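ERR on first pass: missing label on line 2. Operator R.T. fixed the label and resubmitted. Corrected input:
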Amino acid sequence: MTIKRRWSTVAAGLTGIALLLTACGGDDSDDSDSSTESNGAEGSGGDAAEEPAEPEEPITLEFQTLAWQTASMEANEEIVDAWNDEHPNIQVDLLQGDWNNVNDQLLTAFEGGTAPDVFHYESTVLQEFGDRGNVLDLSGYLSDEIRSDIREGAWDTVTYDDAVYGVPFLQESQVVFANATILEDAGIELPTVDDPWTWDEFTEVAAELTTDDRYGAVYPLKSPTNRILNLSRNYGAEFFEDPSGEATAVFGDAEAEVLGRIHDMIYTDESASPDGLGMSSTDALPAFFDGQYAMLPGAIWLRQQLMEQAPDDFEWVTLPALEGDSQQQGAVSQTLSVSADTEYPEYAVQFIEYFLNAENQVKLAAGDWLLPTSQEAAEAPELNDPETGWDVAVATADVLEIAPFQLVKGFEEWKAKVSEPSLQQFFADEISLDELGAKLTGEGNDVLERYRR
Amino acid sequence: MSKARPKATTSVLAAPRGRPRKPQPRRSRRRFLGLDRDGMLLAVPALIPVAVFSLYPLMRGIYLGFTDAQAGRATETSFTAFSNYADLLDDSYFWESFRVGLIWAFSVTILQFVASLGLAMLLNQKIRLRWLARTLSLVPWAMPPVVIGIMWRLIYHPNAGLLNSVLMDLRIIDSNVDWLSSFSLALPAIIVVGVWTGMPQTTVVILAGLQSVSKELQEAASVDGAGAWQRFRAVTWPAIAPVVTAITTLDFIWNFNQFGLVYVLTEGGPGGATRLPMLFAYEEAFRYGNYGYAAALGNVMVLIIAVFVAFYLRQRFKEAQK
Amino acid sequence: MERTTSSAVTGLKYLALCAYLVFLAFPLLWLLSTALKTPQEIAQINPTIIPNDITFANFRAAFDEQPIARSLVNTAFVASVSATLTVLLSIPAAYVMARYRSVVSRAVIVWVLLSQIFPWVLVIIPLFLLLRDAGLYDSRLGLIIVYVVWSMPFALWMLRSYVASIPYELEEAAAMDGATKVRALRSVVAPLLAPGVVAAGLFAFVSAWNEFLFALVLIRDPDLQTISLTLVKFIGAEGVARLGPLAAASLVATIPSLIFFAFMQRRLTGGLLGGAVKS
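pass 2 clean. output:
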């Protein structure tokens, strides 16, 4: 009883202070409104394609990269140093962020107006940042040169309505890695870029390679949503109707295809290891090196890990992306964007264009073992070396497209609350394909409902 | 009014052992908020930073729970009173995770306390290399949190993990167990990590409490022929009771609010089996940008946890009165 | 007969202690072992504690690529200043909370609980804006203030219960000799609080040492960054990490805390109270 009384006293006190705070809150929003306006004005007035003159007085731009592997960090430093030498009055300060926390950091920095002028992130978040007025629309600033050098499919991943919220530069595609020795011993003829395996062929080979102490394949399925949705483009799966408008989750035969095939490999054919359920791609490596799995479907960056971690006597090979109805895959892009708070949008864009020119993209792509978006860069000899699977990786450039889910407002919540848990249940054989479909659309649309208000 | 609110919460922790609670300091000339000049002098230096840097942001956070605040500059915030709370009642994902959160918080807190009490008593005895044992028992505390989750993932790894290989060698299991993606084992597996992470602070606090147990009383009881258990019940336990109450309360709150560690381990999976409620508030705020709704979740959690805590503190107080 | 039981009991005690220490300290050994392995060996299917061939390349990579030493110095500075301030500010306030029946004591208790229960994710943005307006963005002072305020609830809550367990008679005696409250606190209560103060100080130090999120949003300058910010630079997206350098750097970050613990644990021994309370 006394306790209750005490809490209510506190509550009364809190309400009083809360009222005071409302007043402060009002000020904040006024400030930010005006800054949005001014930025908007600058954006539309910007002269496209003109190299802005160097400023009279030295200025500093902050650039936050997410590079973290030694080689790509070195590439970043090298490019920034070269820029700083050439542009004494536009100095770039290179900061290093990290993938796992960059979202929290940027969100807070946007609120406080302390975000770096140029930042590295990925296309999936840009729509949200754009809607919130945190990133600059670059459409008025970009030169024709970079516009035409970067693939159209990559621009699609950063373009919302007519706004361009970043410059795409690295993309990952899904391929298959195989233990070359096992495949050779079994007399399997390797597929080529021109004649890739279909899903059926892949499934057959996996079954053929399965023995008492070996699985034909392993699917790392720790957080499966993005991967499954991207791969399902092989069969034209949409998963969402009217993604950029009143997005509705749908589930039909096309959507069921890849899901069903993987599930069957694990539980019907027993040619894919159930170990993969909680694994990320790198988790699967020890047993892959040990010969417990013959094939490991994964993203092209995994080559870096294979190069670094494979035992000296381990032979691996990169197999082309599988073909369903087509080889099309959904892909997200890593991007460079400009904060809406920047004082120097022209210079920031000028820097991005320099940083992402074809020559530099070669270095960045090589450092991260990912596909460059620059068409010129993709032709560089070092990005076409068959020894390290580059020919296969670069060949996927033609089949990458934006998956519909990237356009869906509320996708992140749909994924966290509905899709990830249901997919895990499905792959653990706790629910059937039909039940999965019902969850993705039923519960899924309840979640999406909130975003239509 | 002042008569109506005696000891309850405040004095619970004081838990005077049989002796009436401290007499009031002698009346001094001027009093403000129940403090004399000395009291003010002692309390104010701590209260100023607290008021500015903790109370203000807290109030602001609580207030947000009654608005529709969103991330971004293009949005306008308006006061919505209780509409967030109406939504929340319908939010089955949240309540499911709340259930998981309670299981997690209670198990971890209880196990942590029992294990730490045992360890603290061992460390309080005259043993060889005590300094080393005490230092090593703080290892989980010294280890950077960012590496803890990653390391335990390696330990639980289904086919290259240390745990499975040890258990296989000991013939406790005969095939690999996939700890973190099993629907039944994932929660227990992360509870072990939770206990591991939180033991040092609980141990240190109890150990410090044990220092204040009167040696004379111990000896006197010993001379009277009391066994170890009786000595513990009669002398040690009453002496450390206030400290135990304080630390278990905090442990419970902290555990309930934990999610970063678990997120690294399981990302809330499999199938939501380890999705702790604070992950919800976090995702609402930092992933979906719904500050208002997230704050409302926070407020509801505060209320519910406060009820648990108040109930617990009351129980402890009653026990201490006996 | 009695001797055998007591040595059996002693044996059991050591056995139990060993079990505890294996459970608690084993991961440190694992960290060491990982830090000394090559990438190939880390990805081996049957991991061994003792590396097949020991390499120091991970330590070299960690120190070459990230300012480890600099971050350790920064962190040590921030953590020790915050711990000292926390304790100095908390002792008197905890004393007031335990000895005065006042509105303030009660309000502080409510605040202590509230500050711990309320999700920090919702506090971080207002706090960040406040610090920015106060000109404390990208400064050590800003971090120190946050850490002091962050640790104070724990320090107050614990110290209050320790004060409460010190008999009031001791102070009365001092008061009769004409000592003021402040004097009584300094000369009578504070010394008896030693173990509690150590516990609170350790807590404040460790929380500051390990804290990540506030450092992430408050510190921009790489020269000011704390060790937890440095460590995450070895972790990438999708659960990929450079385990070797990460383990090496983490080990380096763990050692100073452990040495500090080893040093402080003597104070925990205390025994002060046992001797002093002869009522």
